[in-house]
Queue: 4 jobs
Job 1
Amino acid sequence: MDSNFWKNKKVLLTGHTGFKGSWLSLWLQKLQVDLIGFSKSIPTQPSLFELADVGKNMTSIMKDIRNIQDISDTVKEHKPDIVHTHAAKAGAIGRLAAINYNVPIILHTFHGHVFSGYYGASKNKIFIMIERVLALITDCILVLSERQHRELVEVYRIAPKKKFQIVPLGFDLNPFLSLSGPCDRFQNNPDSSSPLIVGLIGRLVKVKNPLMALEALSLLKIGREFGGKNHKTIIHAYRQIEKALKEDATFSCFPDFLSTDQGKKTHPIQLRIIGGGPL
């Protein structure tokens, strides 16, 4: 990392109020970047953006990134050296505004994609074509894993390999690859009277492949792991998706999965509904 390259550069960053955007904003500020953030709002409460006082040393603009006039006016006014976009819609509109006003360097980060699992085949083809065109005006595309890089280059052919950079994971996950705590105790002492509690927290939708987790839980269910020990699985979901879960054939192999009665101990898999918004 060449800190001299970034020093005093004017950078327009979309999505600066989110969790990842806030961390990136702090990092760019440390590199003495003249930073302009563009976001619709602060998406969570509490938020890292507020707790870390991210907006203190930057220009923070709260407008809708999906409004091409707003982002175009911002690019025209501030004349950034670099525009760095995130997410699909913001990435498309932000990059179009940047090329229209001759921004020298355009960056885009993929945090995932919608090329499969979200829409039908026709829409998928349209989104892929749009991203291929946008890649032509993008100087560097950032991805967050080797797998994502391989998909975008080899499967969907968004851009040549040389246009991508992989951002390495910032966490060492090796300590989590071995069992410890209650799981370790349970495996070493299968006669323990305490049930094993397995938690699954997240968006239970097909694109997140919850079936993989349920298939893993089935090993407990049929007794091939942990000596057939009694277990309880608690699945946290949000009320907005409760109906969709009950209608989804993905979960038909687990007839007791959709039990919301916490008092019935006959159901080893429980769905606990909690309020709020999507995880």
Job 2
Amino acid sequence: MNVSKWNNGISRFLWYFLYSIGFLFLFSTGYAQDIIRFGCMSSAFSGVDKRDAQVALKMMLDKVVAKITDNKKYTHKFEAIAFDDLESIVQSFHSHRIHFMNLNSFDYLAIRDQLPQLEPVLIVTPEEHPTTRFVLLVRNGGTIQNLGQLREKKLTIPNNMDGKMGMIWLNTLLVSNDLPASKSFFSTIKVMDKVSQVVLPVFFSQADACIVSRFAFETMVEMNPQIQKQVAVLFESDAYVKDLICLDKNVNENLKNDIIQSACSLHSDPEARQSHEN
């Protein structure tokens, strides 16, 4: 499986563009249609303005089409379908309404047995390696030294996939230590839109613990080194693959590989990077 590295959350835009591109080669494998559709979970839009995503998508789409088609232009329209549940995704694949999908790894594992044609081809990550680790952070030098001492304490988590996957890990950790599930264990669990809103309450002793990815924590430390002096890692998860690009196995193999290779090089392309930064 290939890995594409994107900084500052640009992975959201990458999969928009991949779906659109993917359907371009469906035209050469018997799936020709006037409107090209690609899929994503509606939760993937958390914290992202959809109009900004569409602008970035169009710029990336033009860049990759030029790379793989020797500047030949495609004029077909494309649209995204945002799904609220996994059952709708499975039904859409079976009815050929969708051929590409962005999924987190837990959702992929939940539906892969129902969709044998679904193939993960790309891992999207903002990090230097293809996996993500989650950390449970507490106040450094405080009274909390073990997991049990967090009972009836305040927890903050991010309002994104890191928060959802981090909570799955935390609940597993609680159960393995013979402790109640998080909803019963903590006094409050606050879901915040920004990483700074998750970590800084622990820094200022307004919350007792938080969950973020190791990458997000290290990014916060780079911006404010004082955080590392006041906030400590109580537990760290194993490595997880977070985001996958999946496609129908029936698409043309050569063109699929060309598209993936082009996608994996976009992080070093100045114009593609500019489409995100603007």
Job 3
Amino acid sequence: MRFKFLLLLNTSFRLIPIIIILGLASSLFEGIGISLFIPLLQDFQESGSENIATTTFISTFVENIFRGLSKEKQIIAIAASIFFSILIKNIISYSNNVVFSWYKSRIGHQLRSKIFGQFLNVSYSFIEKQESGKLMNILAYESWQNIRALEVLVNIIINSCTIIVFAALMLLISWQLTLLVGLMTLVISIVIQLVSREVKYLGQKAVEANKNLTTKMWEGFAGMKVIRIFGREDYEKKYFDRASEKVANVFFHLDIFSGISNPLSEVLSATLLLGILTRIF
């Protein structure tokens, strides 16, 4: 039984552009706040006239805005601008999370309701031919996976817009740095993909193992009376333990391989950031 992913968007599609716009606005304010660190650090330097940052559009723009202020007041004004940029960014980001969470909850409810409605209306012979664990897995697990797929889709769109925003800000700083960051980001992405390619395979195994465990749970409760009549408790316990142990092992390895992506990405990104700061200052 397959359920088309596009059915998720048939009732509240108008919220998707709003969520994307809020995500883009959040990224814009974050980029502005980060960019303002360059003139702020430049003001702390005793002599910044020979730095790359002094020739950037951002530094010139900020200097023109705060031209009438003393050096000390310029530092305070830029620091305040950074604070309010980050504050606005987080307010928008939280609002976006609230809207998206509400949207996902509504879509999840509609999807589960439609799946269960199809189970009630489909021919009972079809139900009898299917494994009970498979049907339970569709209703309890794959419905959540579809919601997760929707979340990934929206995040891809928002992240793509974020890349455009940060690329534009980087171009205002230095096109040479933009090219360098683009190449290094591509290298980091390839490294992460190579390290985490096992996650997809383990994810498929996790779904299969979870389906088998769900089937065993269902059969155990449904056949509890028969199991006790024929004294099959020990056999069924060992059978259940094997299925449960397999789920535990698969999800353990899945967590290991999926968990390595963020630390590795942060270390490589921090190295890139240090290189950029060294190049600018």
Job 4
Amino acid sequence: MLKDTTALIITPEPAWPVRNGWDARNYQLIRAMAGFSKFDVVTLALPHLPINQEETCDNLKARSLTIIRHSPPSYVLTALNSLITSEPMGSLLFHSEELSSTVAALSAKNQYDICLVLGNLCMAKFAAHIQARMHVLDMCDDVALYYDRRARIAGNGPARVFYRKQAKMHRSYLRRESSRFDRILAISELDANTIAQEVDIPVVSVPNCVDSRHFGPAQSGDSMPHNPLLLFVGSMDYWPNRDAVDWFTSSVMPRILHKNPETRLQLVGPDRKSTRLNSS
């Protein structure tokens, strides 16, 4: 396929090597772009994160890779600033004047066909600095729904109020920032439908993909181990993952243990807060 299309892709963190679910989605979308376009990538990165620029650029199939080192402010200060300014926490955490000026210079020089902004609303405002024929935002999931859920399960009143305010901010911010874009991507039909209620542009569902052949279940008749090990890989810092594990351990795991008491569940992934999960 001829690659006459040019694109600029912005990411909140390097999409290679893949370190978490966010990286995995960004990597998939970037590699999909490689099938029909020549593109440049501009990414934020923590100051001390080791990055092999040549290897990363090669794995992403990018024409060029620009790395902007960025130290996000503390979560506590960001939360207070969010309440004062009515700007969502994510947008404040990833604020970077250097990234704004870098993408502005690149777009003025290259006159891109497509601008793809990855990282949901955290990165949406950078589209204002980019000249392109089409602007696309990957929202991934509906962050407002996430905060609605956190508000319902929060253990105290102030936390519930904070999460409700964040959900309201995200919906308001989405309505305002969506005017910069021609398309929005979402990870599921549910997220696409709820996001579409807030904006006046098309919202398209683009789910994450996995090679199901590699992870195929055992064939009928194959013997199962007496003490099977179930594996969950994901960051426990990400609350939807915690919800998923809590649901699995309380609703599914007891049924498995009833049939095979030797079954074990192993969780693999970072958990900076080291908080306790519900157990079966």
